[in-house]
From TrEMBL:
<dbReference type="GO" id="GO:0046872">
    <property type="term" value="F:metal ion binding"/>
</dbReference>
<dbReference type="GO" id="GO:0016787">
    <property type="term" value="F:hydrolase activity"/>
</dbReference>
<dbReference type="InterPro" id="IPR036866">
    <property type="entry name" value="RibonucZ/Hydroxyglut_hydro"/>
</dbReference>
<feature type="domain" description="Metallo-beta-lactamase">
    <location>
        <begin position="13"/>
        <end position="190"/>
    </location>
</feature>
<keyword id="KW-0862">Zinc</keyword>
<keyword id="KW-0479">Metal-binding</keyword>
<dbReference type="InterPro" id="IPR001279">
    <property type="entry name" value="Metallo-B-lactamas"/>
</dbReference>
<dbReference type="InterPro" id="IPR051453">
    <property type="entry name" value="MBL_Glyoxalase_II"/>
</dbReference>
<keyword id="KW-0378">Hydrolase</keyword>
<protein>
    <submittedName>
        <fullName>Glyoxylase, beta-lactamase superfamily II</fullName>
    </submittedName>
</protein>
<dbReference type="Pfam" id="PF00753">
    <property type="entry name" value="Lactamase_B"/>
</dbReference>
């Protein structure tokens, strides 16, 4: 498995990641607006986009979905509680941030819950439902990597004051993350890469909601 962190995109400097299998097929974790750049990165890394896994439905994570599906025919995965944001282009939040260029996506999607395992070639992605930032926020875990979207950042967490946010749900989600076994490399939706052990030690929000006495 290769993980390629793409440059931050959109007005919110949103992270996205290519997860590439041994067969050079790729999953894109989140799709911020700039499909031409993402397509160039796929070409540069000699891989074929097969799937887009969305951590949640905010505009800065979905803006390139429609164009990428048109260009590649890839499948799109999102939690059912956030599907409506994908369908509307998350217009409210895009307007709030005065963002241009996002698109809604009205094509086929594949819905899931955390009881499912998503697969591409030899790669298996476990799903952890982590509501709080949005109702349908999820984290994807593949091997020793976790793609945490806007739930967990380096030393911080995602906002809960936007529509659909819920701080009490976020606290429960953070508790679940803190209590995961072992260490993981955390690839967040914003800011830099970190590790779960580091966040257990230094992230005040994760420490406060840990059940294991970290």
């Amino acid at each position: 498995m290769r993980v390629i962190k793409l440059k931050p995109l959109s007005i919110c400097e949103t992270n996205s990641y290519l997860v590439i299998s041994q067969q050079n097929n790729a999953v894109l974790i989140d799709a911020p607006y700039d499909a031409p750049y993402i397509l160039e990165e796929l070409k540069a890394n000699n891989c074929t986009l097969k799937q887009i896994f969305l951590t949640h439905g905010h505009f800065d994570h979905i803006g390139a979905v429609a164009d990428l599906v048109e260009a590649t025919g890839c499948d799109v995965y999102i939690h059912p509680l956030d599907e409506k944001m994908l369908r509307t282009g998350d217009e409210m939040l895009a307007t709030l941030f005065r963002s241009k260029g996002y698109k809604c996506y009205n094509g086929d999607v594949k819905l899931f819950t955390e009881n499912d395992i998503l697969r591409l070639d030899e790669l298996e992605f476990d799903i952890l439902e982590t509501p709080g930032h949005t109702p349908g926020s999820v984290c994807y875990i593949c091997g020793d990597a976790m793609f945490s979207g806007d739930t967990l950042f380096s030393r911080s967490i995602g906002r809960t004051d936007l529509e659909g946010g819920n701080f009490q749900q976020m606290k429960k989600s953070l508790s679940r993350i803190a209590d995961l076994g072992g260490d993981l490399t955390i690839y967040p939706g914003h800011m830099g890469t970190t590790t779960l052990d580091t966040e257990r030690k230094y992230n005040p929000y994760l420490r406060e909601n840990a059940g294991g006495g970290y």
